[in-house]
Amino acid sequence: MLAVPWIFTILTLLLCADASPRRSTADCAMDSIKIKGGSYSLTSMSPSRVVKYTCPQGMYPYPVQSQKCDRYGRWSPLRTPTGGTAREVVCKWISCPDPSRLEHGSVEPMLGENLVGNSTSNTCFEGYQLRGSPTRTCQPNGKWSGETPICDNGSEHCPNPGTPPGSRRSGDRFGIDDKVTYWCDRGLFMFGSAERVCQENHEWTGTEPACYCECRLHRMPSLINIYHSKSAQKRCSSPMVIHTYYAFTLVYHSMP
Ligand SMILES: *[C@@H]1O[C@H](CO)[C@@H](O)[C@H](O)[C@H]1NC(C)=O
Ligand SMILES: *[C@@H]1O[C@H](CO)[C@@H](O)[C@H](O)[C@H]1NC(C)=O
């Protein structure tokens, strides 16, 4: 009677020992882990180590937000957006695209850099009405608050389609079938329509383009590839998508 539980226990132990994987998982060394201007935390011990980097407000960890230890004891590489490898992680300032191009109006002050918290005010010259936001503030997600300011006098068939921050426009006639073309400042990616045509119904085809920095801020696995792949840009035509990418600031954790 007493022997039965014993046999059971031994059997269980044998079965369990056999079932548990016996691969050797080496832990990555912590001495190579550092971030200039920020802090890090070890967020997971099992099955492997993950280090998360944190920067002060208004900054982001570059080129990666975290590093993962592989099973051979190597940290994931510090891949830069251009495909290179960085030597170390640094905190960089988050900036918004250049807001200073306003036709028939002025933007003040002229900021050298457009950092988080910086604001601009937009005023239109005499005879033009402002559409969009009179003031805009650079937000921690790298976007300006409010709407693109546009100065218009209503004299054309379609309203002035504006020049969103970080973009340039060619085409300044807004009659039926007139076309405007946009491109982004160096280093920025376009979401929305690069080309818009004035239609009979007084509306432009497509959606207002937006130009954003290719900072690796937001490592949401399913989205990051879309964001970084040039060929996939056309698929990201909705500005709503950008909201999702830029949700990164809320993901940050502080050091315990
Ligand atoms: C822009 O923001 C930075 C960082 O907060 C600040 O140091 C700078 O003075 C601001 N510039 C202006 C013109 O407000
Ligand atoms: C309206 O603005 C356009 C340029 O956008 C200008 O050519 C035109 O003369 C203006 N019309 C009036 C009535 O001010």
Question: What is the ordering of alpha helices and beta strands?
Answer: HEEEEEEEEEEEEEEEEHH
What is the spatial order of strands in the main beta sheet?
1-6-4
Q: Structural class per helix/strand content?
A: alpha+beta
CATH topology name of the largest domain, in short, is Complement Module, domain 1
- List how many beta strands DSSP finds: 16
The Rg value, from CA coordinates, equals 26 Å
Sheet having the most strands = 3 strands, mixed
- The proportion of residues forming helix, as a percent range, comes to 10-25%
> If helices are DSSP runs of H or I spanning 4 or more residues, what is the number of helices?
3
The fraction of residues in strands falls at: 25-35%
Attached small molecules: 2-acetamido-2-deoxy-beta-D-glucopyranose
Global shape: elongated
Name the poorly predicted regions.
Answer: 7-24, 216-256
CATH superfamily of the largest domain: Complement Module, domain 1
Average pLDDT confidence is 77
End-to-end distance, in Å?
Answer: 53 Å
Classified by CATH, the class of the largest domain is: Mainly Beta
Structural domain tally: 2
**What is the second-level CATH architecture of the largest domain?**
Ribbon
Signal peptide: 1-19
GO biological process, one term: complement activation
Disulfide bonds: 124-151, 184-211
Domain Sushi: 94-153, 156-213
